[in-house]
Amino acid sequence: MKYVYYGLGILILSLGISLTIKSGLGTSPFDALLVGLSEEVGLTVGSWEVLISVILLIFNSILTRKKPILLGLITAFITGISIDLWMFSFHHVMEPNMWLSELTCFGIGLVFIGLGTAMYLLTKFASTPIDHLTLIIRDIFKKTILFSRTLVYVLFLLLALIFKGPIGIGTLLTVCFGGMILHFFMYFIKR
User: Fold this and answer.
1) Cα angle for residues 183, 15, 171 (degrees, 5° grid)
2) Residue 112: per-residue pLDDT
């Protein structure tokens, strides 16, 4: 059952990421970095998910002074492929072009990101390096997921600005509410 929740969590997470990208309102800072790199340098958003995850895997290993957790790359790889598949399937089907449809698309995506992340994190199978970084920061500072996720978002926001990622009202909403939504679903699903 653990692997069912893991797989379902990854699918829901990647659907949420794709919906926020398609909304055109801005994405999470991490996803804005991926989209910015995709548009500025090339490759797909999913490919950048994997490449940035490799860098974060090494960074996390240095922070914890432990061997890299290579299972996280499996999650990043599956997430990257899933994002690309969702984006491909949405390519001509869904183009929100009115403010209300963009906001709805973004809102559903943000909730799915929180739900999917909580589902697969609670399986304790293999967190992505960015989610592992969130947990490392939580443990280092002895704070909540809300605090650590927000700090991670701020760091990636700066990088997304450098690489001209899609920063918008959605990015601000993600920074303000993404950690809170994840915290809620972590608590709700754990019960």
Assistant:
1) 60
2) 96
CA distance 115 to 162: 29
pTM of the model: 0.84
C-alpha closest to that of 34 among 64, 1, 6, 76: 76
Domain boundaries, the chain: 2-190
Q: What is the largest CA-CA distance in the chain?
A: 49
Residue 70's identity, in one-letter code, is L
Burial of 165 (0-12, 13-18, 19+ CB in 10 A): buried
At 147, the amino acid letter reads F
Amino acid identity, residue 113? I
Amino acid at 58: I
Both tokens of residue 43? 């490759």
Residues 6+ apart with CB under 8 A from 10: 75, 78, 79, 82, 116, 120
Q: For the residues 96-115, what does the mean pLDDT come to?
A: 88
Give dist(CA 85, CA 79) in Å, integer. 10
Q: Is the dihedral of CA 91, 25, 81, 3 positive or negative?
A: negative
Whether the Cβ atoms of residue 165 and residue 36 lie closer than 8 Å to each other: yes
In this structure, what token pair is assigned to residue 134?
Answer: 């969130």
